[in-house]
Write a structure and sequence with these properties.
Largest interface: A-B, 35 and 24 residues
Oligomer: heterodimer
Radius of gyration of chain B: 17 Å
Strand content of chain A: 5-15%
Structural class of chain A: alpha+beta
Helix content of chain B: 25-40%
Shape of chain A: elongated
Number of strands of chain A: 10
Number of helices of chain A: 30
Distance between the termini of chain A: 45 Å
Strand order of the largest sheet of chain A: 4-3-2-1-7-6-5-9-8-10
Shape of chain B: globular
Largest sheet of chain B: 7 strands, mixed
Amino acid sequence: MHEPEFNDLSDDSDYAASQQQGLGGSVFGGDPGMTSGFNEHEASEVVYSKDNVTIHPTQYGSERISGRLRLVKQGESVFMTWVPYKPYPDGPDHLGQSSNSGLSEKDRNLYTIAPVPLSEVCSIRRHTPTLSWPYMIVILSSGLAFPPLYFYSGGLREFLATLKQHVHVVRSADDANVFLVNNFQDPLQRSLSSLALPMALSVANGAPSENLSSSVPLFENSERLNGTKYYTSPNISEYSGRRKHKSHDPARDLSLQVLEKFSLVTKFARETTSHIFRENQGNSFDASEKKQQKQSPALTPTISKPSEEQSHSNDAVVEPDPLELDKSSLVWGKPRQPPMNFEEWAAFLDSEGRIMDSKILRKRIFYGGVEFSLRKEVWKFLLGYHTYESTDAEREYLASVKKSEYEIIKSQWQSISPAQAKRFTKFRERKGLIEKDVVRTDRSISYFDGDDNPNVALLHDILLTYSFYNFDLGYCQGMSDLLSPILFVMEDESEAFWCFVALMERLGPNFNRDQNGMHSQLFALSKLVELLDAPLHNYLKQADCLNYFFCFRWILIQFKREFEYERIMRLWEVLWTHYLSEHFHLYICVAILKKYRNKIMGEQMDFDTLLKFINELSGKIDLDRIIKDAEALCICAGEHGAACIPPGTPPSLPIESDSGLYSQPDDL
Amino acid sequence: MSYAYLFKYIIIGDTGVGKSCLLLQFTDKRFQPVHDLTIGVEFGARMITIDNKPIKLQIWDTAGQESFRSITRSYYRGAAGALLVYDITRRETFNHLASWLEDARQHANANMTIMLIGNKCDLAHRRAVSTEEGEQFAKEHGLIFMEASAKTAQNVEEAFISTAATIYKKIQDGVFDVSNESYGIKVGYGGIPGPSGGRDGSSSQAGGCCT
């Protein structure tokens, strides 16, 4: 995965959205309960202080917020805090509020970092771009990340050095710019086994030499051992002891509102989070598990695999979700945006109607969908019927060519006489099936309701024409569900047909007689769940549910039966962007399953019960929430997730072969 | 709601024979000609009384199209009863019965009670399969048989209940080990479970003990 060189906030509308929410107070300030044990009345010692450490909420220079970063020691604990400067009373902020900075003092205070104990810090990523200021991203063990802190006057190196004196810091084995704080497990264990350094061993034994930290310079250019280094604190046992005293976890106390706030952390920070989480993965995502291990002074190799015994030895206890960072949800999916409107859409087009940046367009649609009136136009691109490079004129021409092409294919079945049909069983059967099904498709939608509705007849004609266009695949139940919203949006027979054709290029294998397209997706889903929720996977395994047939309907017709009509159009356009993954629908599946994992496992659902339960979720799923969760899962899984999905798994375009895509014996 | 037993039923048969309509008529006592076609499986449930015992029927209504057979087969597991449905106005749905039966025999437990239903008997003027043919097929394969109409509700109640009565009798006769849920029977908490007229008369509560 490529690493963005700088922090791109220009298209991160989360910030804008957050500004409008108008939350009072700061993210961490205001509520004394959130200050994690820091007592401002108690004596404290400032061990590090740096001015001109700045946050860039937007790409506008005028909206940068400078402040002071400090490390404060109070008793045995060290806290990190960052406080923005007050705007100068006579400064530009004050004079030109409308023309200059759009940030009010309230907005500025939003980013205040109230004292957070270093014991809550999980990792720090350092960036030292050659042409810009160095900055760092601090990630808490709860998974929250602070916005990048830019060191305008230097001091990042000093910060890390000071940090090192107070907490246990290990440089990640995979990325020399990532410093794992309070991390005694995976990287160290890994290093132990692979390198068996005496130094590291002494750390592992909990008795590091006092001189050790000073004997290893924090930053040196000559990295050895694949860039792996250990930076150890001389007082691990002290740290552990201190950790024990803490009875409550401040990160868990953060309100959802605050968590939402933090989903405005930049995409970049999130990617860093997921990157680091991947590194730490080793089946030990779980924060609480991590903490238990931290508390163990012996630092024995306790990388616990979610064991199978555990999952069925105890009826009542459900193994925690390894990715659950907060009780209420996975929090790092971006807030959803309003659907793209006409002005935004028009801005993507050049003077001849070409889409100038399809990636950004797809990203925009991924995060908010499009307004209904635009669907007719936009879906044709998303589905691949139109290419992004085509001009208005080319598309207009294509439409007329395609219209006559459609008429030709349609005339093939229309010209079959009754006498011919009598001798053409396959045709009769297909036609009969389609006739039976179109009258059972979305008739509660006004577009298709009532007797002799012409739109129902259009569904019939398009499906029968498709079964001639793709005779090998023919017609299969579920296709009418996929066609219905397309026809509803296109309101044109030929255009709907060609959009449907484009969709079926990807989803056709769902309807193969041997169901191989479905099986490959269900298989990939099982692999993803294994990756992203091992306890749930183990549960489903022992409950003999690994065939994932309970997700069959979800995948076959892209959740069509799980959401109301307007919502399904929104979900589909999000899926069709293929923005984060071609297989985002599988992450949607995982997100839904994870949402109900505790219920599924807690109630010990068997196959029948689970199937019924999943079926009855129809109409009860919060779409925006699930898309956000799926986004977080997809980013978190990263390449490991992609590796779970075998090449050619629908909706990836199939690999063409001479024998035809859908050749199957004895199909209807 | 409490019940003495819960029976799992599965409704199978070609697409468009009226499986979902039979279910709806049985559970909701209404006929809804316009409904969405079944993808995968749908569920329905209703309480009935047999021998003064409350029995809950949990009914699985499956998709009929050939392509979905491999998925449908996984639903047979643990079904106590099956309604095998054809449409008396469409000959081919009758012709396919043998293959449905083969599936059922292969994937369901051997003691599953199968009821053959010739649906849409209100459309007698379009009949393509005679009652005698249905009877004959049922007799040959050891099935119970009825013609019914989901539209007029004729025999719908009877079809579901007589299937349940047959299953209930099998329990009485000791054919099933009711503590083994693979037979599609769960013993409930609310009624008086166990074989009242059976062997020793002592009823085992909640299926906790096997005989």
